[in-house]
UniProtKB/TrEMBL annotation:
Name under which the protein is recorded: Terpene cyclase/mutase family member
Native source species: Brettanomyces naardenensis (Yeast)
Known pathway: Terpene metabolism; lanosterol biosynthesis; lanosterol from farnesyl diphosphate: step 3/3
Superkingdom of source: Eukaryota
Record domain Squalene cyclase N-terminal: where: 74-324
């Protein structure tokens, strides 16, 4: 079952929002599919042989860059991609639609099913936490329920196979907290079997060290809306379909399940972050409190407070929410509060369409509403780093990307009382409308814009951006540095660290580690150093503050290095990613292989991992186990990361670097493109996520730097 791929169109806005539309067959000739869409669907993307047969690295670079610019979405100036991997997002969209009686368009329904059918484990028919994961209870239960709600019959072979596996691993009772919440909301589980998520936490004074508004922004947003539902014990009315599903997902009949005594049951395959004793004790008390002591007025009062905070978050994120999990819970809360005609509810549900993305395997709900700003900031910078930004054939694409970044800078503050820090001047990861500052996205965007407006090749664009606007960016970046008692000098992801990591003791999610508070991230720290230093070369604003911040950050980067010379990467897989960023930041302050012990160790570590084929490759197992795990064969993206780090660190042995470059060139297709090889990204140590633009961005930078450093044109065939 599939739709006609030639009828899909990707509609974008100037602010980078992406929506897929299925047009009438009669409209296809007057509204042809563009190259970007064809590439994304892997249909008949025009792949003419590249203009030049690459004999040299310089020519390979031009071919790669030509292909990459040909798949830009010209209208928005972004490179849309199916930012997929996590397998626990689709349940949100489908459950929200079911709960609120909202329509899922037929082509979307078909393609959501097709994606799940295509990603089911070929052996046991289940799904994991992410697309390539082993089968887990969470993944299998959620996606089984999705398929059933989307109309696949229980006796369909895909459902049958998944159900058999689910039974073998103990049934839906082993779902982690979020899974239990989704099931309970759908009336497939009883609330007494779900650990509490009390909204009373949100009425505590902010001074309380465990106040949720001190938590990591994602966990806060998820528990704000999911907490509302858990506190109100909201549940959809039983339907005949739900009655059927109830009987399909447990090893006994639904009536025989002892929910109350299985609150803490988590399938052992799923369990990544077990409860602390403290959390179990707190949960025990909370259950008693909810049952016997919670006054009804307090329940109403704290949920009212939660709703107020949700409304503020909706205002700050143009009704998108920070990411799909919180977005789906939020849409249900808005429906309960406002009813089906509620404008807020309708807007939030409608916006979930921005998270749906088509690809060759079908439609996935992505990790966020895209990676637009992040990818554009890299694209602009790396064309400069590679020395090809001034080439007239690339100028239109770089100009469009620059303009997108200019449009995407925050120019308003969040609604007062939403516990959000100043954001004016900062940039998000995906779109301006999503509204959340990210430290490294701000720094990388700032650097990209400065490169353009300081380039003689782009003189005509100077008037489009007043560099004064970067003063706000610098203010935000400086305010993000952790200078309190936690992790001195480092930068975290969205905010500075606002509460102790001891809060991890009450992490209720079971499948993710390090989600309760912000943590120091070496990559975020590196990017911020790069952005701030680049800025202070062009502008004297807060020069001393920047100098101090950079010194502290550099000291943090050195401290964060492991004894073997590596750095653990939290957002890319894994040590090669963090190594590249750290070495670049250190190089930026003049630390190289020749003069710095830290850099020397960092390089030697990377070099020790080079594979016989000349490149590098790492797998997700490294992110999970915190040990370097090499893939058998090298991969283009990790090879590029290592090569970039080594070149910038001025690693003395050119043959090592040349080996990496040759690997990258050998994987380039005739068209100039590089193909998908493996997951590039990760989050919370356990979930892999794809960054499809990385296989263009980093090779372009690596080859370009190589060319510029060694100034070879014909020697490196
Ligand atoms: C476990 C939870 C809360 C699941 C929801 C998924 C989100 C938390 C993930 C999906 C994409 C994600 C990995 C992302 C990030 C944070 C967590 C996200 C949003 C950030 C912004 C953190 C900072 C990083 O340097 C970088 C910019 C690369 C990433 C981008 C994607």
């Amino acid at each position: 079952m599939s739709t006609d791929l030639s009828r899909w169109r990707l509609r974008t806005t100037k602010l980078g929002a992406q929506r897929w539309e299925y047009i009438a067959s009669s409209a296809t000739s007057s509204d042809p599919q563009d190259a970007c869409t064809k590439y994304l669907l892997n249909t008949d993307c025009p792949r003419p042989p590249a203009p030049i047969q690459p004999k040299t690295a310089a020519q390979a670079l031009l071919n790669g860059a030509t292909f990459f610019t040909s798949i830009q979405d010209d209208y928005s100036g972004t490179w849309p991609v199916q930012y997929k991997g996590p397998m626990f997002m689709t349940i949100g969209y489908v459950a929200a639609a079911y709960f609120t009686g909202s329509n899922i368009p037929e082509p979307v329904r078909i393609e959501l099913i097709r994606y799940l059918v295509n990603t089911a484990n070929p052996v046991d028919g289940g799904w994991g936490l992410h697309e390539k994961d082993k089968t887990t209870c969470f993944g299998t239960t959620m996606n089984y329920v999705v398929l059933r709600l989307l109309g696949l019959p229980a006796d369909h072979p895909v459902c049958k196979k998944a159900r058999e596996t689910l039974m073998r691993i103990g049934g839906a009772i082993g779902c982690p907290h979020w899974g239990k919440i989704w099931l309970a909301v759908l009336n497939l589980y009883r609330w007494e079997g779900v650990n509490p998520a009390p909204t009373e936490l949100f009425v505590l004074p902010y001074a309380a060290p465990i106040h949720p508004m001190r938590w990591w922004v994602h966990t806060r947003a998820i528990y704000l809306a999911a907490g509302y539902l858990a506190t109100a014990k909201s549940q959809y009315a039983l339907t005949p379909l739900l009655e059927e599903i109830r009987q399909e997902i447990f090893v006994t009949s639904f009536e025989q399940v002892d929910f109350a005594s299985n609150r803490n049951t988590v399938c052992e395959i799923d369990l990544y972050y077990p409860h602390s004793r403290l959390l179990n004790v707190l949960n025990w008390f909370m259950v008693k409190y909810e049952k016997y002591a919670r006054p009804n007025w307090l329940l109403k009062y704290s949920n009212k407070r939660a709703y107020e905070l949700i409304l503020k978050d909706m205002e700050n994120t143009s009704y998108l929410s920070i990411a799909p999990v919180s977005g789906a819970f939020t849409a249900i809360v808005l429906y309960l509060e406002q009813g089906p005609q509620g404008k807020g509810f309708q807007r939030s549900f409608d916006n979930m369409a921005e998270e749906l993305f088509m690809g060759p395997q079908g439609m996935a709900v992505m990790g966020t509403n895209g990676s637009q700003v992040w990818d554009d900031a890299f694209a602009v910078q790396y064309f400069f780093a590679a020395g090809i930004a001034g080439n007239p054939i690339f100028k239109p694409a770089i100009t469009r990307a620059f303009r997108f970044l200019v449009r995407s800078q925050f120019d308003t503050e969040c609604s007062p009382g939403s516990f959000r820090d100043p954001r004016k001047g900062a940039w998000p990861f995906s779109t301006k409308e999503q509204g959340y500052t990210v430290s490294d996205c701000t720094a990388e965007s700032m650097k990209a814009i400065l490169m353009v407006i300081n380039s003689d090749d782009y003189k005509e664009l100077r008037s489009e951006f007043d560099p004064q606007r970067l003063h706000d960016s610098v203010d935000v970046l400086l305010s993000l540095q952790n200078v309190g008692s936690f992790e001195y000098g480092s930068f975290a992801s969205y905010e500075r660290i606002k509460a102790t990591p001891l809060l991890e003791w009450i992490n209720p999610a079971e499948v993710f580690g390090n989600i309760m508070v912000e943590y120091p991230y070496v990559e975020c720290t590196d990017s911020t150093v790069l952005g701030l230093l680049y800025f202070s070369r062009h502008d004297s604003y807060r020069k001393d503050d920047i100098k101090r911040a950079v010194d502290l950050a550099i000291a943090y980067i050195a401290r964060a290095q492991n004894p073997d010379g590596s750095w653990y990467g939290s957002w890319g897989i894994c040590y090669t990613y963090a190594g590249m960023f750290a070495l670049e930041a250190l190089a930026e302050v003049g630390k190289t292989y020749a003069n710095s012990e830290v850099v020397r160790k960092g390089c030697d570590f990377l070099v020790s991992k080079q594979l016989p084929d000349g490149g590098w490759g790492e797998t997700m197992a490294g992110s999970e186990t915190h040990k370097y795990v090499s893939s058998k064969e090298s991969m283009v993206v990790q090879t590029s990361w290592s090569v970039i780090g080594l070149i910038l660190a001025k690693y003395p042995k050119q043959e090592v670097i040349k080996g990496g470059i040759e690997l990258i060139l050998s994987r380039q297709q005739k068209s100039g493109e590089w193909l998908y090889e493996s997951d590039e990204g990760v989050f919370n140590h356990s979930c892999a996520i794809e960054y499809p633009n990385y296989r263009f961005l980093f090779p372009i930078k690596a080859i370009g730097l190589y060319e510029r450093t060694y100034a070879l044109t014909s020697d490196n065939e």
